[in-house]
Each structure stands twice: as structure tokens, then as C-alpha cells.
Hints:
With 303 residues, the chain is an alpha/beta fold. It is 36% helix and 15% strand. The strands form two sheets. The chain has a nine-stranded mixed beta sheet with strand order 1-2-6-5-4-3-7-8-9, with helices on both faces. The chain has a three-stranded antiparallel beta sheet with strand order 10-12-11. α4 (108-117) links the parallel β5 (91-94) and β6 (119-122). The model is unreliable at 220-242 (pLDDT under 50).
Amino acid sequence: MARALFTIEPGYPAALAHAGVPPPMIYVKGRTELLAGPTVAIVGARNASAAGRAMARQLAAGIGAAGMLVVSGLARGIDGVAHEAALATGTIAVLAGGIDHIYPPEHEKLHAEIAAQGCLVSEQPPGFKARGNDFPRRNRIVSGLSLGVVVVEAATRSGSLITARRAADQGREVFAVPGHPLDPRAEGTNMLLKQGATLVTSAGDVLEALRPQMGLAPRGMEAGGASILEHMPAEDADLPSSLPHEAAQLVVLQALGPAPVSIDELARATGLAVRALRGVLLELALAGRIEQQGAQLVALKPD
């Protein structure tokens, strides 16, 4: 049985709540507690190559083994492989249609397995059959649930690139697996790399890049060494739109109080760009430092 979850309710995914304009209501089924976990999206071509499938399987297994969840869109190809590889460790499938609408039909068994062991998510009501324009809409939820999106294979005109664009707009990390320049399925991922996406050849690349978002210092940074917080500007100084990671978190925490404020007002108070601010709020929400009140209001979480 699907359960409706509104943005103002406990249990609504914190990551999605801070992803621009979140769906006001989603339907969920399965282990809904997974929605609170740190998540990485893995997406790619439906007509995936054998090498692409092997890479997706390796990435999903490695990310899952590290304690993170894998989210995807339950499509043919890379999506399905990623879900299968992460079933044992936790996976979330975002559907374009209602939770009871199985698409593609050959994923009937996988759909049932995710409902039992993972979590199904949709913004559409049960019984709704997806139309063409519902799939791009679904992609913003895939990226919104995630700290980062990994694109394994993608042609130049593909839904996976839409997910990557959504991720960038939402302030998420975008990763891409490089491919052979003569393979059309690599044109999209190679293009993303030229545009600044983080190159990925293993799950370790993804995990290392996302350590700051999970509140962990990058490997090799000496504990107790010179902190960037020592170089923080005074509270009344003009702040740049982009600050070092820990500094941005501190600035936001200092600006917040028990009374909820809008994200726009918080951006004005901190001097941070809204896109950068959303990323910081996501990290603080996942760390349990702040709480969301409605779609656009945040406040410090009471001790």
C-alpha cells in the first residue's frame, strides 16, 4: 500500500525538501526510513553496453558497501543494473507513473523486490500511467534525493543528461564515467566531463568527492591543523557567494535561530548564492542540525 507524504510531514526526505521547488506530496512504498539516508543517483543509457552495465554494477555495489544508498529511475539498462546491485544495501526507485504502474514491464520482478527491500517513490497517484513528459519530471526527484548524480553512459540527447542538468541546478555534484569517443553512448558523458563534471572510474572517486557533504574532512587533511574557520571574515563583513565548505556551514548556523526564516531571506543575511546555500542546508539537514518547516522555511533544530 502506497503512503502519501507531504513536505511538512516528518519523514519527507530532507534532501528533496531542499531541492529548489520540491513536490508538495510524494507517494512512497517500502522501507521509507531509507529516505533519510545519504544517497547517490546512478543513471545512464537504456541501451547500455556490457562495459557500461559492469561499471554501473561495480559503482552501485561499492557505494552500497560504503553505507550509502543508490537511487535511480527503474528504467532499462543502467538504472535497472544499479538497482539490482544495490538491493542488499539499500536502493530507492523513483517512478514516472504511479507506484503500482510497472514500467518497463520486464522489471516486474525488480519492482516487487524494491518494494519489499528498498523504497519506491512517485509524485503521481496510484493507478497513474506515465506519459512521455512525466519521465523528465521524474528526473528532478532522482537528483533531488541525492547528494550527487553519476552518469555512466548517455547519448547527447538523453534523459540522463536531463537528470545531470537538474542535479547541477539543485547544487548537487555531477559525476560522469568517461567512454570511448567513437561510442555514441559516451558522447553525453564525455560532454559532461568537458563541462566540468567530476570524472569517475570507481566508487571511491564518488565517495571521496562527497565526503564534505557528509560532514567528513577530505582524506589527507590533518586533524587539528590550521582550520579555515580561523580565516572567517567578521560577521559584518561582505561575504562572497562561495565560501569554503566548513565556513559556509558556520555562517548559516550563525544566521539561523529557532524562528523559521525563508531561504531567500537566509541568502540575503549570509551573502551566499541561493544555489550554494541549498547545498549547505542539505548537509546541515542530513546532519540533524536544522529542520524544515514547509517548502521554503528553515530553522535551527532544538537541542
